[in-house]
Design a protein that fits this description.
Elements (H helix, E strand, L loop, with lengths): L15 E7 L3 E9 L6 E10 L9 H15 L1 H4 L6 E5 L15 H10 L4 E5 L6 H5 L5 H4 L26 H11 L1 H10 L2 E6 L4 E6 L4 E2 L4 H13 L8 H11 E2 L3 H10 L2 H6 L24 E7 L10 E7 L6 E6 L5 H11 L1 H4 L4 E4 L3 H4 L1 H10 L2 E4 L9 H17 L10 H9 L10 H6 L16 H4 L1
Parallel strand pairs: 1-4, 4-5, 8-9, 10-13, 13-14
Antiparallel strand pairs: 1-2, 2-3, 6-7, 10-11, 11-12
């Protein structure tokens, strides 16, 4: 393989052999063929590449798989249309079972899909016979023996809580001793801040406090760490958090600029980072579906079906119609799971059209009732823009999903007989539209008819017939 001529020209009529190997930093591969009667393989081309920082963290199986994928993509012109299956030689035996994996990650599934374009077979060879590919990856032994690179997730300046524990004496004694070393600073603060100097032990020791008797904390980081060790890290404190720690510290000491220092210290507490629950997780802001300004009620609507309900007077589904404009109102109509697009149009014609005219935009999911040719043709003839959401993606219209949740919860709470839910839908529509919307601060009925119709009869006027109360 080292004697001239080193490289040979590829012959598409013969079988290609691909030898691969990987290291901690990169990949190496050699493409060879048997070009004469001696069955001796001659190299055609070499391939060498380095891993990205993310790829360096892959496990050994993924790295060995990745080198095969990289080599195939690099030599796609040679290997994509071979008459005979080409042979991939590897010293990683697990690759020979690559088709038998039952559960694949998203990354591995994508790699498997790319391999479907090639006609090949993988064979295992001993590591000592994989010299051509291995020779491309030789590096300094010191570099090869280095362990995995560790990455700090938190800036180093955050970790302020590093100190020596077990110092004798109380915290107050340490504060007084530290004040003696910072007498020049304390004298300046005495002029700037409302602090008082006290002479003790015959004037040999000066102690600075404020008018409430709180000791003044000098600008010494070691002392500050010792204070927080007692009031924050100690098992008697229990890592109370930023606000409570600040309150306790400032209750006992006068600490200039202490709030920022305490917050930085707690931010770098490794114990809290490992064990405390995150209560303020950052969320991606929701995208609000836009509505034309000053749009009349039910000009832009959303429709959805709630199916799988128990039979009630021949109905087993609910058609929900929601206004996306300023009303945010909803109408709940009983129907059947097998309802068709013409029947949905008939329900809209009877219950919504006489009051609000035809909509200009309809939002729905991809149920067959909304994607039929009739529905699309009817919308086109009437000038209605029909917007379909992505399949299996309810987040597209969260307003509709919330209305569906509301009506299901309402029926569960007020319904005693599962077979009578269809009779409660007109009442449910009234109850919903009498509820204030968190966005507009008004109820849909207030915006529409400037009043809220009473839902329940006066409590003092009971009826003898229970059917009348229903």
């Amino acid at each position: 393989m080292c004697s001239r001529p080193v490289l040979a020209h590829p012959d598409p009529e013969k079988v290609f052999y691909l030898q691969t190997d990987t290291s901690t930093k990169g990949v190496g591969a050699v493409l060879t063929q048997e070009l004469d009667q001696s069955k001796k393989q001659r190299p055609i081309t070499y391939y060498l590449a380095t891993f990205t920082p993310a790829e360096e963290n892959y496990d050994i199986y993924e790295k060995e798989f990745l080198v095969v994928l990289k080599a195939l993509e690099h030599w796609r012109a040679y290997l994509i249309w071979t008459k005979e299956p080409f042979v991939i030689k590897t010293d990683h035996k697990n690759l020979t079972y690559w088709k038998e994996l039952k559960k694949l990650t998203g990354r591995m599934a994508g790699w498997h899909e790319k391999l479907q374009d090639y006609n090949f077979r993988i064979v295992h060879i001993a590591g000592k016979t994989n010299g051509p590919a291995d020779a491309l990856l030789r590096m300094d032994q010191e570099e090869e023996n280095k362990g995995p690179k560790l990455t700090l997730l938190i800036p180093s300046d955050v970790f302020l809580n590093i100190f020596e524990a077990g110092d004798p004496g109380t915290i107050e004694d340490k504060v007084v001793q530290t004040q003696q070393r910072y007498q020049e600073v304390m004298n300046k603060w005495e002029k700037m801040l409302s602090i008082i100097r006290h002479n003790k032990q015959g004037g040999r020791t000066a102690v600075w406090t404020n008018r409430m008797g709180q000791l003044v904390v000098p600008p010494d980081n070691n002392l500050k760490r010792k204070i927080l060790k007692e009031l924050y890290d100690h098992w008697g404190a229990g890592h109370p958090g930023r606000d409570e720690t600040t309150r306790q510290v400032l209750h006992s000491y006068l600490w200039p600029l202490g709030r920022a220092w305490i917050a930085q210290y707690i931010k770098g507490c490794a114990t809290c980072q490992q064990n405390k629950n995150l209560t303020h997780v950052t969320k991606t802001p929701l995208y609000k579906i836009t509505v034309p300004e000053n749009a009349p009620p039910f000009t832009q609507i959303a429709m959805d079906l709630i199916t799988g309900l128990p039979k009630s007077r021949g109905h087993d589904a609910i058609l929900t119609i929601v206004d996306h404009g300023c009303l945010q109102g909803a109408i709940f109509l009983p129907c059947n799971t097998t309802i068709t697009e013409p029947q949905i149009a008939q329900l809209y014609y009877k219950h919504v059209y006489p009051w609000f005219r035809l909509p200009t935009k309809v939002i729905s999911n991809r149920d067959p009732q909304f994607t039929s040719h009739f529905g699309q043709s009817l919308a086109k003839e009437l000038g209605i823009c029909w917007n379909l959401s992505t399949a299996f993606h309810p987040q597209t219209d969260r307003l509709m999903e919330r209305k569906n949740q509301w009506i299901e919860q309402y029926l569960h709470l007020v319904m005693a007989n599962n077979e009578e839910w269809s009779n409660l839908l007109p009442l449910a529509t009234l109850v919903h539209n009498n509820s204030a919307n968190s966005t507009t601060r008004f109820t849909p009925n207030q915006l529409l008819i400037r009043q809220e119709p009473p839902v329940t009869p006066a409590q003092s006027e009971g009826a003898e017939n229970p059917l009348a109360e229903l």
